[in-house]
Amino acid sequence: MIVHLVDGTYELFRHFYGLRRFTTGKERRFGAVAGVLNTMVQMIDEGATHLGVATDHVIESFRNGLWSGYKTEEGIDLALLAQFEPLEDALRAMGIPVWAMTELEADDALASAAAIASEDSRVQKVCIWTPDKDLAQCVREDRIVQIDRRSKVIRDADGVRAKFGVNPELIPDYLALVGDSADGYPGIAGIGPKGAAALLTRYGAIELFPSQELGERQPLALLFKLLATLRTDAKLFADVDELEWRGPAAGFPAVCKRLDAPDLLARVTKAARARAG
Q: For FRET with 30, which of 47, 90, 176, 193 sits at 20 to 30 Å CA-CA?
């Protein structure tokens, strides 16, 4: 089987701003939610059988206590923030497992889910659907891959090495050195992508750098590495069978009515009938 793990936070942002670009007049209150669910049913129509979605139920996480500049919900459109909980409820009604994260982040959930799923010998491949470079650290050869829906790139371990110049396991070290503006930490001044890749190729992980290489900046680099390292210990599910899509719950028609999405109800109903045989 193939397990598909979807970054729900990214998908909600993508649909929210996509609708805003291409819609004139009054915005639908839950338009982005309906967009994400349509993306999920498209995946099911294309053959996906086992799926899970991770969301940032609360934008802040334990990392905010480690670095004051770490990302928060400040500046996020209130109309977008108001769609997170409805998205989670709608996905559950559609029959798709949702991991709504609070202390941890959606990225941690995706990393944890990938680790759990990859331990099952029945799983041939784990696909992590997100463009977030943090998730490149989870890639393992061609068994755990990252898919960027926007660019249609499927990135295995060779793809990670080609893009970043380091093995997937060293992505936290790489991000620690170059920084991640999306997450709010700057990296180490004077070290760019090529320089970071060269250092990591030469020495390995930051902990193995000679003391003179970063000097007094090494503790800061290690802090940034901690921020960039995804947790894989979230207890999200016990068996990949829990991720199999078996159709929507009885309350799904009411959800579609709330979303003002009758076409979505028709699509999901059709997909469920096809799946049933």
A: 47
Scanning the structure block, which residue is given the tokens 């905010």? 64
Q: Is the pTM above the cut of 0.70?
A: yes
Classify each residue of 58-84 as buried b or exposed e, where b means 16 or more C-beta atoms within 10 Å of its C-beta: ebbbebeeebeebbeeeeeeeebeebb
> Residue 184, by phi and psi: left (phi above 0), alpha (psi -120 to 50) or beta?
left
Tokens of residue 170, six digits: 């060293």
Burial class (CB in 10 A: 0-12, 13-18, 19+), 146: buried
What backbone torsions phi and psi does residue 72 show, to the nearest 5 degrees? -135, -175
Residue ranges of domains in the chain, CATH in brackets = 2-163+231-276 (3.40.50.1010), 166-228 (1.10.150.20)
Among 58, 49, 29, 130, which Cα is nearest to 96's? 49
> Which residue shows structure tokens 């290690």?
222
Please compute Rg for the chain using Cα positions.
20
pLDDT band at 23 (very low <50, low <70, confident <90, very high): low
Residue 273 C-alpha from the chain's centroid:
29
